[in-house]
Specification:
Helix 3 packs across helix 8 and helix 18 packs across helix 21. Helix content is about 50%, strand content about 15%. It folds into six domains: about 180 residues, Orthogonal Bundle (Hypothetical protein af1432); about 150 residues, Beta Polymerase, domain 2; about 80 residues, Ubiquitin-like (UB roll) (Roll), CATH 3.10.20; about 80 residues, no CATH class; about 60 residues, no CATH class; about 80 residues, Alpha-Beta Plaits. Strands 1, 2, 3, 4, 5 and 6 form a six-stranded mixed beta sheet that branches.
Length: about 750
């Protein structure tokens, strides 16, 4: 159905209401003329039908106004940012240029618009933040710090709006990026409220069941939790009023995401998380008495309740680099329950909610261009933490401690995992550079290709035309890309050497005037202990197998076949020693790696199928770069997928099936039902009738007239799997069939 890209009546009303709200919030910064010009540009775009809805069916103009409200209320930045948000979509769609923006609205707005446009270009090239473009994305943020804040606000806006979207793939991608990139960015800038919202919404979209399980538990326990908070704060309230302090108190339940993380970390159910909430005491104190009043409250509470010294956090004496100030203590309250208490002032509380924007506003910044630049400069100072590195480099290094950022002599930036070597860096630049790498130069000093890199290193790779990859390089390389390229080069070298060995063997046969029979040669290989032809020629190439030994074995085999020697006797094998050859799905997959396309069209890469979810041709899948190198293929709905995306998002790469398959895959099905007479025969009969499905094993348990069993089968793809499940569900007595 064709999508309507115009504004409907409800959307027009929403936009008008948002305009009024925005004018009220920004009346001291934006003029009526600013809004008139923006309205004219939007009207022209709508009349020209140049604006298209996004992947979620949301209208960009409505989203831009909603984002501008978040920027104005939650972050607090002013004219340049607000206009940048409202004009950004027009520039992206080519309806307005950065030069025109500068002429009409000024250079400050044009800088914001240009930064946002650069980010959009990166997303068009590759929307996966976990990919190589992640480093470029962060570099584009460095153009103007406000761009970071606007992008965070935009992502919060989108995350709020996509709950009902039918585009699950796009929602999953957006939610993953929010958890992996934007929530940590918000945390670094002290935007704790937005950070928590992004984390909760990401959990809601990525791990739906976990989110609603915790939400329902919180709702069920709210009444008893509120009653406990009341009992806890009542005596505190009386004591603080008695000493004349002005304050208010509130209970704050931990975010759903925070509770879920604690459940996973402690491996406990919801009931095992004891600190579900915190009490916040917010003092109305003048600036000169803030610390004194906070410590007075601390003294009163610790006199009433036993404190846990290990859980004390003093961010009054030394605030966090992002401006956060507060005093945290955990005390043993009534019923022997631990309760966290946060003590802060009104000023500190606003900084905690709105981040550095509020921090520098409290320092006397009132508004205007000079004011904006003043607090932005202080953000830079906080992020750089006193280093002389470029604006965002230190920020990236602090935020992603398990990664290193290194530079080429020309200043190009590369992101590598912690522990990466000069060899990894060489392969990151280009495969040919990696294959010819002999070492490197860091800071003018020569180093070996084994040298471990540190963030900020500027590395020059040294190469030699005669250098070739070595087997032990696989122990040096840490990145999946480098290890994959080394394996590929070693295979190509082995194939070349094997070809030379084959030519040499054929020449020896010819010199002895021996006619080569292919079947006889195959039997000779088997007698010599080689079942794979490439292994045989590789052994000849590296000298493991002597060529004269092969000639003698071949002539002996000819004599056997002509009957000149007694027949080779097979040793009888007892049933006890007999072993069924197991089908190794992963080995077959390596031989047919062209069935899988990895990372934006790279085919022929070695990979294995994850045993935790057993992907089958046709499943939606993704690739995961393992710590030992190589790629594991997981199903999108793999039970381990959420944890992999959250903890190791930078290792996630695209993967999809290609071609027509042709390989059989192992799948385990769980079948439950009534233990009727003959039901097992009925199930196995269905499988045996399908020539393209093999039954590997079956295990059935019966109890009280019910049975539960697992079937391990080999089949071609998901369509055949769906057909089989439908047939099994149609068997009388079967109650359910599910994939394990």
């Amino acid at each position: 159905m064709e999508q309507n890209n115009g504004l409907n009546g409800a959307e027009k009303e929403q936009i008008e209401a948002l305009k009024e709200e925005l004018r009220r919030l920004t009346q001291s910064e934006l003029s009526a003329d600013d809004y008139t010009k923006v309205d004219n540009y939007h009207r022209q775009a709508l009349e020209a039908e140049s604006i298209r809805r996004d992947a979620f069916g949301l209208h960009p103009i409505l989203v831009e106004y909603q984002t501008a409200i978040i920027v104005a209320t939650e972050i607090g930045i002013t004219r340049g940012a607000i206009l940048g948000v409202l004009l950004n979509g027009l520039v992206i769609r080519g309806l307005l240029t950065s030069q025109e923006v500068e002429q009409v609205f000024g250079k400050d707005v044009a800088v914001i618009v240009h930064g946002l446009a650069r980010i959009n270009e990166l997303y068009e090239k590759n929307p996966i933040v976990e990919s190589e473009n992640f480093r470029q994305l962060l570099l584009s943020f460095a153009e103007d710090m406000r761009v970071i804040l606007i992008v965070i606000a935009s992502r919060v806006c989108i995350m709020r709006k996509i709950k009902e979207s039918e585009n699950d793939e796009a929602r999953r991608r957006v939610a993953t990026e929010a958890a992996y990139l934007y929530a940590p960015l918000a945390h670094k800038l002290g935007l704790y409220k937005l950070k928590s919202e992004l984390e909760d919404l990401s959990l809601k979209y990525l791990e739906h069941d976990a989110y609603y399980h915790i939400k329902e538990k919180l709702n069920a326990t709210k009444k008893s939790r509120d009653a406990y908070i009341e009992r806890f704060i009542k005596p505190i309230d009386e004591k603080l009023k008695a000493v004349g302090l002005k304050f208010h108190m509130k209970g704050r339940t931990k975010s759903i995401h925070s509770i879920w993380q604690k459940m996973k970390k402690q491996r406990c159910p919801f009931e095992g998380v004891y600190d579900l909430f915190a009490i916040r005491i917010i003092l109305d104190s003048p600036l000169e008495r803030e610390k004194q009043d906070c410590w007075q409250v601390f003294s009163i509470i610790t006199d009433m309740y036993q404190p846990n010294p290990k859980r004390m956090r003093d961010w009054l004496s030394i605030p966090k680099s992002n401006g956060y100030e507060s005093l945290h203590i955990t005390v043993l309250g009534p019923e022997q329950k631990w309760v966290e208490v946060q003590i802060r002032t009104e000023r500190m509380d606003e900084i905690a909610e709105r981040g550095l924007a509020a921090h520098w506003r409290y320092k006397g910044v009132k508004g205007g261009e000079a004011g904006v630049e003043a607090w932005l400069q202080n953000i830079r100072t906080a992020l750089e933490a006193g280093d002389d590195l470029q604006l965002m480099d230190q920020f990236k290094m602090d935020l992603y401690e398990d990664e290193v950022f290194v530079f080429t002599p020309k200043g190009d930036l590369f992101k590598l995992p912690q522990g990466a070597t000069v060899l990894d860096f060489a392969y990151a630049i280009h495969t040919k550079v990696g294959n010819r790498c002999t070492g490197g130069r860091i800071g003018g000093k020569m180093v070996t290709l084994r040298q471990v890199l540190q963030s900020g290193d500027q590395v020059e790779i040294m190469t030699h035309a005669n250098q070739v990859p070595k087997q032990d390089w696989l122990n040096v390389a840490k990145t999946g890309r480098a290890r994959s390229k080394i394996r590929q080069a070693l295979k190509e070298m082995a194939a070349t050497q094997a070809a030379y060995a084959k030519e040499e063997l054929e020449r020896k046969f010819k010199n002895r005037k021996i006619e080569v029979e292919e079947a006889t040669l195959m039997h000779t290989m088997t007698r010599l202990g080689y079942r794979i032809v490439t292994d045989f020629y590789a052994a000849l190439a590296d000298g493991t197998l002597d060529i004269n030994q092969v000639l003698e074995a071949y002539m002996m085999q000819q004599r056997y076949e002509r009957g000149e020697l007694p027949s080779q006797q097979q040793q009888p094998q007892s049933a006890g020693n007999f072993q069924l050859q197991q089908y190794d799905n992963n080995k077959e997959r390596l031989r047919k790696s062209d069935v899988m396309v990895i990372d934006q069209g790279l085919s022929g890469i070695d990979y294995t199928l994850a045993k935790c979810c057993h992907p089958v041709y046709g499943d939606q899948v993704f690739g995961f770069l393992t710590s030992g190198g190589g790629v594991k293929i997981h199903r999108i709905d793999c039970p381990n997928a959420p944890a992999l995306r959250q903890r190791y998002g930078y290792r996630i790469i695209d993967a999809r099936w290609a071609g027509k398959g042709g390989t059989q895959y192992g799948v385990t099905l769980r079948v439950v039902g009534q233990d009727d007479l003959g039901i097992v025969n009925n199930i196995t009969s269905i499988i045996s009738k399908d020539e393209k499905i093999q039954l590997r094993s079956i295990s059935i348990d019966s109890n009280d007239g019910l049975f539960s069993g697992t079937l391990t089968i080999l089949l071609d793809d998901t369509s055949r799997l769906k057909q089989l499940i439908q047939k099994l569900e149609g068997v009388k007595g079967v109650k359910g069939v599910s994939r394990v």
